[in-house]
């Protein structure tokens, strides 16, 4: 008979000391699917602006605030619902988020005026924002530390995968059934998946072990990791939460860290600005170009496919070459691709090829920035540093669609839009170079760094 040793970090020790098993692979698979549903709902409107504008009698440029409302809801959901999960459990919050963005995707399909559309997309974003942090937290909790980076990167691949599926669904459903049917698909898929989540998704064992009433449930979960397990120690339950000092965001600006904090926030915000302006507006901008009608949808599908590949290889590249080198090279390569796009004649084949490569670079870089944030901060403030970088970065994701809408309203051509996107990429590149040289100076002064 196996027993779990009564140590303070007993559950994480059990997970770290054993190989990946069926429980972890099932959990990661569920989270990839959920992230894909998230990506579908976040990006689907980018494919539908033209038909929606015509149906609702609105100018296409007025959809900038609609995109921004989704992303504002996403930011608020991430900040407010993640702490709630620590109190009532991650599984409950995740299921609530799935129900929320499913319901309000349906409300989007039923919207008949601008105000209804704004509200429906904001509330959809609220549910989407609460889902992602809990996905990552569950994956990190159940995955051995040595595999955590790969597992999280794999889950993040679900988001561009979902965006790609959104494009394929829009391409097939839109001509036959209209834009409302596409949103109905986005509402029905999560509801079908919710039943599988309820039956298969494990709750956080750290959350369950806070009370002895959950002993049998914890035993069932842990026994899937240790099949011969028969009992659990009493010391595992009724444990107080970790007695750690409350980390104030002010710590991110103390002891000279203000420079690296501000420099890190810049590439986060600028990269998301580029990413969401492309995802939101490229199909609409291309509709006015002399290209086949389906080119806009194909462009975002390929951009998302590039994101899947980029996210998968990013971690390995940074392990081999270093985070700074890879990220700096990615922004330089993106700028070269933009110059090529502007100089070459606008043809479908060349444009789609460049969008595929841009997706690989931009979305891969977004995954890489999370790893860079973890490297820049000491252990005791690392979570706070990453969380605030993600939160500030969301400002860029809100500004991107708004600025894209402004450019569409001014009648800009696709080349002009991408030339404008060089500005945030140059800002991000400058910040990354400053971080790189600052760290080199720190390493020269302190040969044994603490981060």
Descriptive overview:
By secondary structure, the chain is mainly alpha-helical. It has 2 domains: 1-243, MFS general substrate transporter like domains (Growth Hormone, Chain: A), CATH 1.20.1250.20; 246-441, Growth Hormone, Chain: A. The protein has 17 helices and 2 strands. Residues 4-8 and 240-245 have low confidence and may be disordered.
Low-confidence stretches: 4-8, 240-245
Count of alpha/pi helices = 17
Shape: globular
What integer is the average pLDDT? 80
* Major sheet: 2 strands, parallel
Count of strand segments: 2
Q: In angstroms, what is the radius of gyration?
A: 23 Å
- CATH topology heading of the largest domain: Growth Hormone, Chain: A
Helix percentage range: over 70%
Task: Give short descriptive properties of this protein.
451 residues, mainly alpha, Growth Hormone, Chain: A, 17 helices, 2 strands, 1% strand
Topology diagram in text:
Elements: E1 2-3, H1 10-16, H2 22-43, H3 49-56, H4 64-88, H5 90-109, H6 114-142, H7 148-177, H8 179-200, H9 205-208, H10 215-225, E2 229-231, H11 258-287, H12 295-321, H13 323-343, H14 348-376, H15 382-409, H16 414-420, H17 422-445
Parallel strand pairs: 1-2
Helix pairs in contact: 2-6, 2-7, 2-8, 4-5, 4-6, 4-15, 5-6, 5-8, 6-7, 7-8, 7-12, 11-12, 11-14, 11-15, 11-17, 12-13, 12-14, 13-14, 13-16, 13-17, 14-15
């Amino acid at each position: 008979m196996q027993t779990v040793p009564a140590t303070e970090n007993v559950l994480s020790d059990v997970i770290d000391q054993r190989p990946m098993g069926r429980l972890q692979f099932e959990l990661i698979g569920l989270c990839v699917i959920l992230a894909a549903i998230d990506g579908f709902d976040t990006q689907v409107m980018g494919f539908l602006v033209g038909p929606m504008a015509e149906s609702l009698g609105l100018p296409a440029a007025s959809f900038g605030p609609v995109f921004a409302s989704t992303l504002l809801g996403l930011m608020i959901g991430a900040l407010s619902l993640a702490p709630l999960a620590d109190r009532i459990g991650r599984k409950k919050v995740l299921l609530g988020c799935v129900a929320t963005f499913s319901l309000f995707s349906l409300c989007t399909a039923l919207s008949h005026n601008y105000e209804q559309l704004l509200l429906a997309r904001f509330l959809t974003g609220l549910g989407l924002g609460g889902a992602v942090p809990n996905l990552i937290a569950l994956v990190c909790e159940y995955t051995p530390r040595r595999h955590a980076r790969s597992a999280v990167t794999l889950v993040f691949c679900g988001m561009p995968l979902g965006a790609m599926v959104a494009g394929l669904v829009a391409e097939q459903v839109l001509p036959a059934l209209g834009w409302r049917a596409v949103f109905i698909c986005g509402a029905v898929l999560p509801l079908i998946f919710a039943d599988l989540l309820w039956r298969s998704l494990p709750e956080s064992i750290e959350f369950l072990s806070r009370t002895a009433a959950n002993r049998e449930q914890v035993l069932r979960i842990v026994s899937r990791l240790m099949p011969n397990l028969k009992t659990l120690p009493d010391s595992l339950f009724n444990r107080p939460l970790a007695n750690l000092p409350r980390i104030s965001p002010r710590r991110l600006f103390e002891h000279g860290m203000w420079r690296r904090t501000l420099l890190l926030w810049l590439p986060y915000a600028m990269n998301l600005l580029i990413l969401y302006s492309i995802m939101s507006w490229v199909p609409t901008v291309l509709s006015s170009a002399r290209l086949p009608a389906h080119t806009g949808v194909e462009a975002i599908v390929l951009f998302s496919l590039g994101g899947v590949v980029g996210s998968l290889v990013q971690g390995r590249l940074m392990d081999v070459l270093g985070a700074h080198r890879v990220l700096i090279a990615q922004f330089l390569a993106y700028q070269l691709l933009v110059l090529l796009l502007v100089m070459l004649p606008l043809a479908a084949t060349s444009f789609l090829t460049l969008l595929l490569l841009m997706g690989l670079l931009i979305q891969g870089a977004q995954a890489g920035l999370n790893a860079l944030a973890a490297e820049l901060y000491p252990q005791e403030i690392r979570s706070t540093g990453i969380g605030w970088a993600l939160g500030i970065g969301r400002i860029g994701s809100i500004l991107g669609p708004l600025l894209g809408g402004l450019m569409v309203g001014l009648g800009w051509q696709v080349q002009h839009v991408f030339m404008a996107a060089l500005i945030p990429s140059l800002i991000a590149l400058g910040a990354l170079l400053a971080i790189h040289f600052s760290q080199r100076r720190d390493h020269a002064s302190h040969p044994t760094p603490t981060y």
